[in-house]
Write a structure and sequence with these properties.
alpha+beta; Aminopeptidase; 2 domains; 13-stranded mixed β-sheet; 30% helix; 28% strand
Length: 337
């Protein structure tokens, strides 16, 4: 792209303006009913939208944000018609912005709120049906980013299918005598467990599995989304009875974008399972899975999606053994400046 043909660059910093341009950067709908959740996350970070225009029409967009640290995050990246020159132009702007503002790293795409718009560039061959938190894009994007010096920071797979069945006979292979699951009684109690849930996740999930920056600021927004479209059964805790301490947590995410013939959501995401390292290898993930799926099936759910960092072999083995298929792969990229 020569200088004469360069597009007009606009930068938007007001979240109320930014939200008007986000739909260009995602196929997941930016519904008005999602606005409160979107604005909450936009206001939690230092957010900007870089917009490219030609003859008054938008032809490129990228959302930039940071949490006050040394990493610049980006999301909602798209060029009109997936034009290679436009993509390269926008990537150069992204890198120049990161260097100008003294960031050490650039990482993404991580689209906020992640529980609606997800993360990663989708690899070629992935399922491209609309689902909450599952971005859809042309594979040319990651190719050009890597040409510009980005590398794969994390590879996130998704396993999907009809709800698996966990038989009582199967569960009898494990001894759960010392453990019991606990479902919070109301949403205030869920919020009271905020510190515990975040601590269990931070201590027991791999760095590759911890996607969203500064989750402590975003927890309440996530809970509000689950409360709006899901139910309390989507959060469970696991207690070790001899010590009376909680040593695990399970979180799932409703998918309001898919509904059954009665107009009710019929799918969800098995979003996260965290178990203290000292209690692993005892089948406790199965206990969580069974509890979650049994409750989901009683609440008109018949389909689930399970994201996993590609190296979590044990969890992936369980998913595939229970009939879920590897349907999508998303790449989170990073560059050191």
């Amino acid at each position: 792209m020569n200088k004469a043909s360069e597009p007009v660059i606009e930068i938007k910093e007001n979240p109320q303006e930014i939200i008007n341009y986000m739909q260009f950067g995602t196929r997941i709908p930016v519904l008005k009913e999602f606005y409160s959740f979107i604005l909450s996350d936009l206001n939690s970070f230092h957010t900007k939208s870089i917009i490219l225009k030609e003859d008054g029409e938008i032809i490129g967009h990228v959302l930039l944000y940071d949490d006050g640290g040394d990493t610049l995050y980006f999301g909602f990246f798209k060029a009109q018609s997936h034009d290679k020159k436009l993509i390269k132009f926008l990537v150069n702007l992204l890198i120049d912005y990161g260097r100008k503002h003294n960031f050490k790293y650039i990482r993404g795409p991580i689209n906020i709120p992640t529980f609606i718009y997800g993360w990663g560039f989708m690899q070629k061959g992935s399922l491209d049906k609309i689902f909450i938190a599952k971005p859809i894009n042309h594979y040319i994007y990651q190719e050009i980013f890597m040409q510009k010096g980005f590398f794969v920071k994390s590879q996130q797979g998704t396993w999907e299918g009809t709800l698996p069945v966990f038989s009582e006979e199967e569960m009898q292979n494990y001894d759960f005598t010392d453990y019991e699951t606990y479902q919070p009684k109301d949403w205030n109690e869920v919020r009271n467990f905020k510190g515990l849930v975040l601590s269990l996740s931070a201590q027991n999930l791999s760095q590759e599995s911890q996607i969203t920056p500064n989750p402590i600021k975003l927890f309440d927004n996530f809970v509000n989304f689950v409360k709006c479209y899901g139910d309390l059964y989507m959060l469970n805790l696991l207690k070790y009875k001899p010590s009376e301490k909680y040593i695990g947590c399970y979180v799932s995410l409703p998918n309001p974008l898919r509904k059954n013939d009665k107009g009710l959501p019929d799918s969800f995401i098995l979003y996260s399972i965290s178990i203290d390292k000292d209690h692993r290898g005892k089948g406790l993930s199965l206990l969580f899975y069974k509890e979650a799926i049994d409750k989901a099936s009683k609440n008109h759910m018949n389909y689930c999606s399970a994201p996993n960092e590609i190296n979590r072999k044990r969890v992936i083995t369980v998913s595939e053994r229970k009939g879920l298929s590897h349907t999508r792969t998303h790449l989170i990229l990073e560059i050191q400046l």
